[in-house]
Amino acid sequence: MSIIVPLYNTPKDFLKQMIESVQSQTYSNWELCLADGSDDAHDYVEEVCNTYAKKDSRIVYHRLVKNEGIVGNTNRCIDLASGVYFGLLDHDDILHPSALYEVAKAIEKGADFIYTDEMKFRDMPESSTDIVCKNGFGKDELRSHNYICHFVVFKKSLLEGMAELYRLECEGSQDYDMVLRLTEKAEHIVHIPKILYYWRVHEGSVSMNLAGKQYAVDSAKQALGDQLKRTGELGKVACNLPYETIYRISYNIRKNPLVSVILKGNNRKTDLSSYVKKLLERTTYRPLEIVCAGLDEAIFCGNGVIFSEKASGEYFIFLTDDCLPLTDMWIEEMLMYAQREDVGCVGPWILYRNHTTCFAGAVLDSQEPSGIHLINRGMPEDEQGYEANMRHVRNTTILTGRCLMIARKRFSELGGFDSEMKGFRDADLCLKSRDAGYWNVWTCFAKIESGRSPGRDVVWKESDAFRKKWLERLWQEDEFYHPLLKALKWM
Fold first, then answer.
1. Which of 6, 200, 226, 279 qualifies as a FRET site for 167, CA 20 to 30 Å off?
2. Nearest 10 degrees: CA dihedral of 363, 368, 374, 376?
């Protein structure tokens, strides 16, 4: 593994600590590539590096003719590298002693892009409490924000066809652009849920000065827009204000297809006609098909709505009759994902009437009676969640059938609902989607209100059939499950 470190006026103590953290690795088959663009006032950088290089032949140092900034210096640093895998380390940060060993284990299992958890620190890593626990790789989560960040290691072959690792036009968000491009090509992306990277916080560091850099935000939006062009997806990229570094993509909806809302009776007290009237008043999308039995259609009038006892739309929305939209473009917000060829199931943010969270995605968890852990259950609507995970679109393992959208062709391909999975048919469908290689998407921009009581509401109960089919096989490798997150209040 070649560790890539561009240098520029690095403080002497930080430089020594960085180099020694690499030398302290328990995995020894590495080279440390240092490309130095420091100015004449910081000649000590060259002196320090040469001192270490003379004692350790694995350290490769090169003084650059001129400083080319983070983009150019990193690309020049790669020119020095001879490894099969490249790891990216900032000049003032530190690696955990077992970082490369853990990465090597993942590589031996076929990984070609690896990232780890990280910790921010000021003086000593041991005194830090700013720990960043990350999700497994999710295409939509990555498009919402650069949560991968440090420590990144990737196979050299992923650079084939690329002019350079970093692009000058994305300076300021060059890491984000790099991760977007490399993960497009990677075949086996692995997240190591261990803190293996220490990100130093000091005056002048990126970790202290993320806010207020408009050029970095603009570069990030360009990187996302460029990915949409490369993948042939049409959409607009914007910041989800006031969060400048959280992004929202509005995908173009193709051909305005018929959507079937398949109502499931859950509340015996529901006046069905009154419910459907409210549903349509709060729904902008047309054409729309309402699928249910026993509805007095005579009370309805208006264009673009039909009623049926059998779904004929290109997209299905399964909806219980105790749920009503809180955002009138709820269908559009889900359809833009459901129409993608790489997406299986899509679900909204479901809230109770007291403005707390009923459902915001779910993961497998063997310690739960149902085998399913609900993310941020009970969290107030105005809370942003861990790493602001309630303010952006993300991938999740499981969605609920209380409100779930899926393309008709995808539903058929996956075999529909399994009658043997009583009470877990929605979760089973989502896991079949995941097993087939599709993304399941949760969006905070489609909001639904549940009429159920928070204190007595149970989404899933115990099921031996569900555990036998899915939990024993999948829960430990569930790409969206992080064991440390359950220690947090809302996880």
1. 200
2. -110
Cis peptide preceding 97, ω within 30 of 0: no
Name which of 472, 363, 387 is nearest 145 in CA terms.
387
Q: CB of 359 within 8 A of CB of 400?
A: yes
Is the pTM here over 0.90, yes or no? yes
CB 408 within 8 A of CB 445: no
Would the CA dihedral through 113, 114, 118, 122 be positive or negative?
Answer: negative
DSSP code of 380? B
Query: Which domains can be identified in the chain, with CATH numbers?
Result: 2-245 (3.90.550.10), 259-487 (3.90.550.10)
Q: How far apart are CA 183 and CA 94, in angstroms?
A: 24
Chunked into runs of 10 residues, the chain (491 residues) has average pLDDT values of 97 97 98 96 96 98 94 95 97 97 97 96 81 92 96 97 92 96 97 94 59 83 97 96 96 96 76 90 96 71 82 97 96 98 98 97 89 93 94 96 98 96 96 96 98 88 91 70 55 44
Q: What is the 3-state secondary structure (H, E, C) of 304-318?
A: CEEEECCCCCCEEEE
